[in-house]
């Protein structure tokens, strides 16, 4: 429980006024900005209600209603906002003149300065730092925005919507103005303004109804050459949404601005997306293949929000997953359609297991639809986003694609131009799919538990083979794995399954089948081919059909079989991951299982033979060990240093055992690595994995080759080389790192990856290295990317961060207290590096606890306090 006041879903009341239109006027000076707002306000009810407007760090200059100036005590003002005690009972115009100081705003919320340009971030509650306003997503208005500023300092003046007018203001041409109009009603969190010296690159898109859309990407001078990938990605997203969802872009202009100082990835402001520059500026020389794919998907994500988020928005912030879960689902489907469905699924599951499952196991676990919060910024989590997307994916599976799209269509038609709830969405989906709720083939209330309950459900599976009738009887049991819920909650858990004949091998006995586990216990009968003597091998949760963990009585032989034969990408990969987890678990209990290790290595050798040429990306994925967070989650008493060392030893073993095979493949791969992304990505990925294993196994030639590859024209290759040398901490690692730094020291986006590398690589030089990075002349305290690179990197430097004297933790706490003073959103997100303290072995646990107490005693923001208190309790 937090000591701070929380906001509750159950307290929701409608805002008593409509604000159909807003005119905003920005007069940008050298020291401050004068903002004038003029709002048309209509009371919703006859009974009078006071008008409450939020405001944060705004200086009020004047206020009038229908042209008549208001005087105290007709209104009252505090550090939270403004209250007008008796507003008129019918439509009126409220004009407010105020002053804000974006030049000293380091929070990166509201209007702020980034590398000389003024930019905004209003989601979730930043608009109240710009002008007095209700600042809640259920108040939708049409916006017209006028901006005036010095022509030379701010040649570009942008806001949402379409440009209506631009011109000079005085005879000597020192100042100019722009007027922007957004015809679509929107909540204020989608408001955006950008003013500065920016260059733009433009392109066009013709929609399926023949409308011409002007696309423009704004960047700092010199960065124009890095925008092609972003433009291409946007065009692909526009086309995909038309073809798959029948959704067309609605404005005449689509603008993206790249900003260096940004708290998150990107923001979907209507017609004027603002992006963290690392998610716009990229080509294959500066970004890895994975980064190019991520940029493509984030550009698509923000674009898809235009319908799922902007045209239909959220009634309140408890509904955040309504727009985020759905939009993540849409961007995942987009990437999956464009590239490889199987590989994308593995990528998403791996992310979910390492981050969302870890969150759901710990102190900041919450439901996809939470019931209360202190700071909404703390709820931009992987549960709201990625688990939210999994819920939509389950609905797609349960309804079938056709019905699912009918439901989505109805949702969009019903709620266009308004603010909705997750229940509105689900009801529309079911109605669109089946016409009536009673026709829905699964229990809707039980499905809704996915939204309301936190924690990852666990499924237990046991099989018994009826050889006489060739039937496999499978019993399923579900339990919700959360400390917070003791009640007996039943969920709807869709399980896609198939099975294989042990004798006949590779092809499954039947196509994928759907079993719906909707009770605590339920049985399934699988009829196999008549005459089948042995029990078949069961392949479960194919495509990772629900976001659960499971424990079954499958044997090691079964997993080995599936690792070699399963035709479902996810299930095949997952079987290998299971085996590797088992191996590492036994090693960490000091009893290595050599026979299992041998059999697994042999299976890898067989896999290499069968997959090397056909699917290099999949092969690389199959032979990579599970993520660190996933490994940590296997233990009740986590010893991070031991887990790290054991996982390195295991990888040394793999490297040594398959040395010959890897050397042969790496030669074959070289012919394809220069192809342009997305071509050649599989070969590059596999080459990186091979370099990692061979370098770890002590192959000096590979290590030297890695140093030479730092200057390779593909960033994927260069970073793979850095990665392969990382665990070594020898002079070659040092040499490679210096080479990389010298190549990229003038490019802040790429240099962040160097900062992260330096902070995270193992070495024996102590914590001073991190201190030095933080005072490096190229390090910028105001850029969250840089902070995340160094402090986030440091948190992954296992020996240093988790050092048993607790010094790593204390250092982190001190730095986060400093970060919190300038940027609470970044600090409160980063403080989660301490989330798992209770699960660690005593030494680490005590050290982390001490650092948490230190944070708790410090004068920290309410955002960071909320997280620290949750972690401590
Ligand atoms: N809506 C954005 C995420 C976002 C949230 C908050 C921000 O600033 C505090 C910025 C961006 C998205 O889903 O892409
Ligand atoms: Zn989003």
In short:
The chain is an alpha+beta fold and 873 residues long.
Account of the protein in words:
There is one protein chain. This protein has 873 residues and is of the alpha+beta class. It has 5 domains: 7-197, Sandwich (Immunoglobulin-like); 312-452, Neutral Protease Domain 2 (Neutral Protease, domain 2, Orthogonal Bundle), CATH 1.10.390.10; 456-554, Immunoglobulin-like (Sandwich), CATH 2.60.40; 581-728, Zincin-like fold (Alpha Horseshoe); 745-873, Zincin-like fold (Alpha Horseshoe), CATH 1.25.50. A hairpin with a 4-residue loop joins strand 2 and strand 3. It is globular and about 90 Å long. The relative contact order is 0.07. The model has no long low-confidence stretch (mean pLDDT 96). Zinc ion binds next to helix 3.
Question: How does the SSE layout of this entry go?
Answer:
Blueprint: E1 7-8, E2 17-28, E3 33-43, E4 51-54, E5 59-65, E6 68-69, E7 75-78, E8 81-84, E9 92-100, E10 110-114, E11 117-121, E12 141-150, E13 156-159, E14 162-168, E15 175-186, E16 193-196, E17 199-206, E18 212-219, H1 228-245, E19 253-259, E20 266-267, E21 272-276, H2 289-304, E22 313-314, H3 320-338, H4 341-361, E23 372-373, H5 382-399, H6 401-415, E24 419-420, H7 422-434, H8 444-452, E25 456-466, E26 471-481, E27 493-500, E28 513-517, E29 521-527, E30 537-539, E31 549-552, H9 556-565, H10 569-588, H11 594-611, H12 616-622, H13 628-632, H14 640-657, H15 659-669, H16 681-696, H17 700-709, H18 715-725, H19 731-744, H20 748-760, H21 768-774, H22 784-795, H23 798-801, H24 807-822, H25 824-830, H26 842-857, H27 862-872
Parallel strand pairs: 2-12, 18-19, 19-21, 22-24, 25-31
Antiparallel strand pairs: 1-23, 2-3, 3-9, 4-8, 5-6, 5-9, 7-8, 10-11, 11-16, 12-15, 13-16, 14-15, 17-18, 20-21, 25-26, 26-29, 27-28, 27-30
Helix pairs in contact: 1-2, 2-3, 3-4, 3-5, 4-5, 4-10, 5-6, 6-7, 9-10, 9-11, 11-12, 12-16, 14-16, 15-16, 16-18, 17-18, 17-19, 18-19, 19-20, 20-22, 24-25, 24-26, 25-27, 26-27
Bound molecules: O-methyl-L-tyrosine (0A1) and zinc ion.
């Amino acid at each position: 429980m937090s000591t701070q006041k929380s906001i509750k879903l159950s307290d929701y009341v409608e805002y008593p006024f409509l604000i159909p239109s807003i005119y905003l006027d920005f007069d940008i000076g050298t020291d401050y900005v004068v903002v004038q707002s003029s709002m048309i306000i209509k009371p919703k009810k006859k009974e009078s209600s006071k008008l409450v407007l939020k405001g944060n760090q705004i200086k009020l200059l004047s206020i009038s209603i229908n042209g008549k100036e208001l005087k105290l005590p007709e209104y009252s003002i505090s550090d939270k906002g403004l209250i007008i005690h008796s507003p008129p009972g019918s439509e009126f115009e409220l004009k407010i003149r105020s002053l804000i100081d974006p030049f000293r705003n380091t929070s990166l919320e509201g209007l702020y300065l980034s590398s000389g340009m003024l930019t905004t971030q209003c989601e979730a509650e930043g608009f109240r730092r710009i002008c007095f306003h209700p600042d809640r997503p259920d108040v939708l208005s049409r916006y017209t925005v006028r901006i005036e500023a010095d022509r030379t300092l701010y040649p570009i003046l942008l806001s949402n919507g379409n440009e209506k007018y631009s011109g000079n203001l005085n005879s000597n041409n020192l100042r100019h103005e722009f007027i922007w109009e957004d015809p679509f009603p929107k909540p204020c969190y989608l408001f955006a303004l950008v003013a500065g010296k920016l260059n733009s690159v433009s392109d066009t898109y013709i929609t399926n109804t023949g409308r011409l859309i002007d696309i423009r990407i704004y960047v700092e001078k010199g960065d124009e050459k890095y925008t092609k990938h972003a433009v291409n990605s946007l065009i692909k997203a526009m086309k995909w949404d038309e073809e798959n969802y029948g959704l067309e872009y609605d404005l005449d202009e689509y603008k993206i601005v790249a900003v260096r100082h940004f708290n998150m990835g990107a923001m979907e402001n209507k017609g004027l997306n603002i992006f963290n520059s690392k998610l716009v500026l990229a080509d294959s020389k500066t970004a890895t293949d994975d980064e190019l794919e991520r940029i493509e998907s984030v550009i698509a994500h923000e674009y898809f929000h235009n319908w799922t988020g902007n045209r239909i928005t959220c009634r309140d912030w408890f509904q955040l997953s309504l727009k985020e879960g759905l939009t993540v689902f849409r961007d995942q489907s987009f990437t999956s359609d464009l590239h490889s469905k199987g590989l994308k699924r593995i990528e998403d599951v791996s992310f979910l297991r390492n981050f969302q499952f870890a969150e759901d196991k710990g102190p900041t676990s919450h439901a996809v639809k939470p019931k209360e919060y202190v700071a909404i910024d703390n709820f931009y989590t992987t549960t709201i986003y990625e688990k939210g997307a999994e819920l939509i994916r389950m609905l797609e599976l349960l309804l079938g694609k056709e019905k699912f799209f009918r439901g989505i269509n109805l949702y969009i038609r019903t709620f266009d131009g308004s603010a909705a709830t997750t229940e509105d969405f689900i009801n529309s989906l079911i109605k669109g799919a089946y016409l009536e709720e009673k026709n829905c083939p699964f229990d809707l209330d039980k499905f809704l538990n996915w939204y309301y309950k936190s924690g990852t459900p666990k499924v237990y599976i046991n099989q018994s083979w009826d050889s006489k009738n060739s039937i496999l009887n499978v019993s399923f049991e579900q339990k919700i794995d959360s400390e917070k819920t003791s009640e007996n909650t039943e969920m709807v858990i869709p399980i896609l399954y198939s099975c294989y004949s042990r004798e006949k091998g590779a092809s499954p006995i039947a196509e994928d089948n759907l079993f719906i586990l909707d009770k605590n216990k339920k049985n399934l009968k699988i009829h196999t081919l008549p005459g089948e003597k042995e029990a078949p091998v069961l392949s479960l949760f194919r495509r990772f059909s629900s976001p659960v963990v499971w424990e079954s009585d499958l044997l090691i032989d079964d997993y080995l079989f599936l690792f070699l034969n399963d035709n479902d990408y996810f299930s095949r990969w997952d079987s290998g991951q299971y085996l590797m987890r088992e191996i590492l678990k036994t090693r960490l209990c000091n009893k290595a299982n050599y026979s299992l290790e041998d059999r697994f290595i042999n299976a890898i050798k067989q896999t290499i033979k069968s997959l090397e040429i056909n699917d290099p990306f999949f092969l690389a994925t199959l032979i990579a060990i599970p993520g660190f967070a996933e490994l940590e989650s296997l233990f009740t008493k986590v010893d991070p240093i031991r887990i790290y060392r054991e996982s390195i030893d295991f990888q040394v073993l793999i490297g040594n055992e398959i040395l010959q095979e890897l050397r042969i493949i790496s030669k074959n791969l070289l012919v394809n690595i220069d192809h342009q992304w997305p071509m050649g990505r599989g070969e590059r990925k596999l080459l990186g994995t091979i370099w990692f294993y061979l370098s770890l196994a002590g192959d000096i030639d590979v290590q030297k080759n890695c140093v030479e590859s730092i200057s390779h024209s593909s960033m994927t290759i260069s970073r793979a080389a850095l990665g392969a040398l990382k665990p070594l901490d020898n002079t070659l690692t040092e040499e490679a790192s210096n080479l990389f730094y010298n190549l990229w020291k003038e490019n802040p986006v790429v240099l962040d990856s160097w900062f992260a590398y330096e902070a995270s690589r193992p070495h024996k030089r102590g914590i001073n290295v991190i201190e030095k990075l933080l005072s490096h002349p190229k390090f910028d305290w105001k850029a969250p990317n840089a902070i995340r690179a160094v402090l986030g990197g440091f948190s992954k430097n296992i020996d240093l961060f988790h050092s048993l004297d607790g010094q790593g933790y204390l250092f982190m706490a001190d730095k986060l207290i400093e970060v919190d003073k300038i940027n609470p959103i970044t600090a409160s997100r980063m403080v989660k590096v301490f989330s798992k303290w209770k699960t660690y072995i005593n030494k680490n646990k005590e050290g982390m606890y001490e650092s948490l107490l230190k944070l708790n005693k410090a004068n920290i923001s309410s955002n960071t306090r909320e997280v620290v208190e949750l972690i401590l309790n």
